[in-house]
């Protein structure tokens, strides 16, 4: 399986969006992690915290800009 930055950022996005939906202000972050995040994604607490600190919106936007072809009529294979 090939590793790409885009797939990583899409997984980070999925985790962060699920956390934002399920998080309640009076509930500790670890409890939300144990009850919601871990059963869905099977990631460690350290990885979860790293995902929350990643600015995935900016990086996905930059990747999208980099993948735009210079000449839209001429596409390259490689």
Descriptive overview:
This protein has 78 residues and is mostly helical. The chain is built from four helices and no strands. It has helices at 5-22, 29-41, 45-52, 56-66. Helix 1 packs across helix 2 and helix 1 runs antiparallel to helix 4 (56-66).
Quick structural gist:
By secondary structure, the chain is mostly helical.
The helix content, as a percent range, equals: 55-70%
Specify the biggest β-sheet: none
Query: SSE order in H/E notation?
Result: HHHH
Q: How many domain units?
A: 1
Beta percentage is under 5%
- The coarse silhouette is elongated
Backbone CA Rg: 16 Å
Keywords for this entry:
78 residues; mainly alpha
Task: Give the arrangement of secondary structure elements.
Layout: H1 5-22, H2 29-41, H3 45-52, H4 56-66
